[in-house]
Amino acid sequence: MPVDFSGTWNLVSNDNFEGYMVALGIDFATRKVAKMLKPQKVIKQDGDSFYIHTTSTFRDYLLEFKVGEEFDEDTKGLDNRKCKSLVTWENDKLVCVQTGEKKNRGWTHWLEGDDLHLELRCENQVCRQVFKRA
Ligand code: VLZ
User: Fold this and answer.
1) Which domain holds residue 11?
2) How far away, in angstroms, is 61 Cα from ligand 1 center?
């Protein structure tokens, strides 16, 4: 059985989100609000087609893509940049490279036990998030 990330997921831990946001150039006031949030992710996966909706009381962010097909990403409402993004499988991990102004930008999702993990990378900063099923 291939891995299936589908479901509704609640954030339970968020290590170094502050460092990640600083690396993205998010302003102080926005960071103060954003780091208090407990975002929820709604993921719909149909084979290699993904819908990932990250929602919170403050901002939300929708990403839709197909694994292996590069797309133009506009991080509207986050750091408001444009990048070329490509998501690929590395074994059972979903790996995104976001090519643009920021070096070393991307993220990785994987499942571990009942948890959904997300590593967010930008420049020399790594944020580690863990989600549990709602
Ligand atoms: O996740 O790129 O699941 O896009 C944080 C929302 C969402 C809170 C961060 C507001 C996006 C922040 C994480 C205000 C600045 C992300 C991908 C992988 C899908």
Assistant:
1) 7-133
2) 6
